[in-house]
């Protein structure tokens, strides 16, 4: 399994996703959904799941989970989770170059 690193922006994304989910669907659903996202990140690092190339940013991969997309870079021995964006968010604006 590769090492897994979440950027500060990805951690902030997860915090926002939890807060939004808790407000709209309750604490249990917020916990379940953010756990699902974290599990997807772990599965990517373990090689159980694989991402697809991102068309608008070279070197990035993406993986869909729920209504969110995990954007990451494969660094060989480490997987860097860069952002976790809702499917409606502007990727070009929110993903670093």
Automatic annotation (TrEMBL):
Gene3D superfamilies: RelE-like. The keyword 4Fe-4S does not apply. It holds the Pfam family ParE_toxin. InterPro entries: ParE1/4, RelE/ParE_toxin, RelE/ParE_toxin_dom_sf. Keywords: Toxin-antitoxin system. Belongs to the RelE toxin family. It comes from Agrobacterium larrymoorei. This is Toxin. Signal peptide: none annotated.
């Amino acid at each position: 399994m590769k090492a897994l690193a979440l950027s500060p922006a990805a951690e902030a994304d997860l915090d926002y996703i939890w807060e939004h989910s808790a407000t709209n669907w309750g604490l249990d659903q917020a916990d379940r959904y953010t756990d699902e996202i974290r599990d997807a990140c772990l599965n990517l690092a373990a090689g159980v799941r694989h991402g697809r190339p991102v068309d608008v940013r070279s070197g990035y991969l993406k993986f869909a989970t729920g209504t969110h997309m995990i954007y990451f870079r494969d660094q060989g021995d480490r997987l860097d989770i860069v952002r976790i964006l809702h499917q409606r968010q502007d990727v070009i604006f929110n993903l670093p170059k």
